[in-house]
């Protein structure tokens, strides 16, 4: 298999963490690329030019991090990332993490192309409010949860989104505002799969 990615995409990092947690790292060649440069191989794998993109052993191309995660979860015998006995709970948390990731990522991209003043636009303010609501809800849901040795797709998506927020939008200051959520996050990101894929 081949996985197209870069070092700063939260979506690519999510897919790579699932790879590691599922014991599939040795089965995949990492194809580092710049999605903004219209990389020819990436465009062949994903005409949208977005990462991550996965080419399976059969030559099928997959895009979108959550869909790639579902596929990887199904082809490895390791403990499932999306357990059927907690399907709703896992997908609920994964959705919150995905939404936080989207709001943060779109803020970063908007600033890159239009400057920080774009934050004052209607869409910029909407993204900011979404980030604050999501942080509050995640703190309420995860702040008092005891750490376990198991991890699922919801945990991964949420922890990656929080990491990305700290990496790209440090002014959000969520670790100081939500110390219990920070403690939960620290427990998840201490895993080897997170340490090996840290943003850079």
Automatic annotation (TrEMBL):
Keyword entries, A-Z: Transferase
- Record has Transferase as a keyword: yes
GO cellular component terms, semicolon-separated:
cytoplasm
Gene Ontology terms for molecular function: transferase activity
A Pfam family for this UniProt protein?
A: GST_N_2
Q: Which residues form the GST N-terminal domain?
A: 1-80
What is the protein's name according to its record?
Glutathione S-transferase
